[in-house]
Amino acid sequence: MLEQALQAAAALPEGDPLAAASALRAAGFPPDLAAAALTQVALRRKAVTKFGADAAVMHFTRAGLEQATRGPVAARRAARLAAAGATRVADLGCGIGADTIAFARAGLRVHAVDASPETAATASANVLALGLAADVLVEARDAMSVPLDEVDAVFCDPARRTTGGRRVFDPRSYSPPWDFVVGLAARVPMTVLKLAPGIDHALLPPGAEGEWVSVDGDVVEAAAWCGPLAAAPRRATLFQSAPTGSAAAPSVVSLTGNGITAAPVGHIGNFMYDPDGAVVRSHLVAEFAETVDGMLADPTIAYVHTPTYVPTPFGRCYEVLDQLPIALKRLRTALRALDVGSLTILKRGSALDVEELRRSLRLSGSRAAIIALTRVAGAPAVLLLSRVPDPGNAAPSQ
User: In CATH, which superfamily holds the domain spanning 65-255?
Assistant: First the structure.
């Protein structure tokens, strides 16, 4: 009866949830079943951005969907593991099964576990719904109890939330414990750890490749690739979704480097690049600057300046129109002289509160403008900018 309720709920137009619940009850579905079906349909619609067409048959919990790996990110990770020669993988902390599904589709056999019986049941239902059950074993089990002698690869996504849903930022509070997580590579050399984007580089396992991943400009995760999987000390991987309505797969580009090189420091150029968050998090600003023949105007600020425009998928580019006064009254006068009413404010290295500054400027003009609050040669600075359109063609994936 659940499937009939789901089909009936999916056929209803999006809009008033009370009217939808009434329609399902009028169709003969009990109130609790109608509520469950409407919740599941709402989650499926929301999940399309992560799972595409698969979302229509998958099962979700709110927390599980929020924490699940995006489909293209999981698929790329699985392909990389398969290319490295992995055949059987233990998925420790499988959640609702996003990575488990990707591993199975890449031809790997998967032993997936999650400490939550409800979450493990959801993962099992998703594996079954997508026709992958023959290659996947899902268990409700503590990750620390899983024997690893029959697998040649491990993927671990430790829980980074409390049972109440609060985010955990200290890796020592992860579940399973951090010592167990970082020790996995000593037991199974082909180990991949999914980590929070804010992970301290110093906490990565020795010799591991640290990868930071962004999707459409948002940094969504970090990963540690251990043992023979480490191809470079640091990597920034950027996914860019295809235009709305397009069936094309997301474009993917990667930038690699050692993560310790310092970028050259010079002066403000005609163009300023704001590197993607994955580039900044992976400490690859110097490597990015080299790709556009750029430099920093301040050694502590990750804005990259160039004399000429160079198309790149690794950061947003702005033309530098002017350097404005930092003092509030003079800045207000300068912006009013430009008839500015709508102001976009970028910020790196400034203690100013963006919203407080916006209110204090009291702009009422008819034009839009962009400014960057930053530092130049150690001193506060305000740059007037104009956005350069993103390049039409991204660089090839590496």
Answer: Vaccinia Virus protein VP39 (3.40.50.150)
